[in-house]
Amino acid sequence: MPNSSAAFTITTETAGAVLSALRKHAGNLTWSAAKKHMEGRRIAVNGILCVDEGRRVVIGDVIELRTRSFPPPPKDEDVRILFIDQDLVVVDKPAGMLSLRHPADIDLKQEKKDRQPSLEESVRRLIPRRYNQSARTGGAELFAVHRIDRETSGILVFARNENTQAGLIRQFAAHDALRKYFCIIPGWLTDQTLESVQIRDRGDGLRGSSPDAADGQRMVTHITPLRRLGDYTELECRLETGRTNQIRIQLAELGHPICGDVKYRGPFGSPSIPDQSTAPRLALHAAELGFVHPLSNALHRYELPWPKDILSLIRRIKIGE
Known about the structure:
Blueprint: E1 4-9, E2 16-17, H1 18-26, H2 31-39, E3 43-45, E4 48-49, E5 56-57, E6 62-66, E7 80-84, E8 88-93, H3 110-115, H4 119-130, E9 153-159, H5 162-173, E10 178-186, E11 192-199, E12 208-210, E13 217-229, E14 232-239, H6 246-253, E15 284-292, E16 299-303, H7 308-319
Parallel strand pairs: 9-15
Antiparallel strand pairs: 1-6, 2-5, 3-4, 3-6, 7-8, 8-9, 10-14, 10-15, 11-12, 11-13, 13-14, 15-16
């Protein structure tokens, strides 16, 4: 696990406030030391920097205590708007930023929200700052269409009115929208289609696959290897369905967990597969998005290469560092 001095999986006995849980696992860690680690940006939950000592952790979450500080949380200036019109906005989400704030956290104090803003909050602020509010660009209200995992980077679209939202959601539900991801895994996989049924709790509090098709939701991912990187592979993953953590779960179940993934490290019930990649975060990137504009019928297609942090990882892997 990259830059980690310790990592702990939350159990029934340790679930609760993050610092309390960390102290239960770490043994002799004092409250003042735990708080200093948080202030120094050295505590992560599920691979994501934690800056809120009131954060609750549940069974299956992974707390990391790192020896090196995380980068500061992404802010508004780290978000890029790729396209905007009066009906929708396409953005480049930085890794480490929530797509949407959880409904339970909507009423958090603004000071807490500002520590780790969601993408939706940042884009709503950016639109009036960067664009004149006119009939051409519409207002700053946003409507969710899909999400990207917090630790994943890449392309996401928001609707700017309910008609556009409904039209885009129909395309995603019918699998008409194009969604491709890049990821890096240990080992090698051939072209194939991964199909399974997702359940909310596989037995340890995490989502996973079930052999019973009546139990959950169908997951389908088409994978294509792009290139070998020493002992690793860069994969292209095209989503047919878009369930929560879909790519991460299916690759881990194959025994090829994504580099930098601290939650899904192999098939359920088997020993965790060590991560020797030194990945700075989850090596997963929403690289391509395509859809038909619901109101203009124009074809939209966007592509983004790997961001700098994962390009640096690829260079290290290629030279065998």
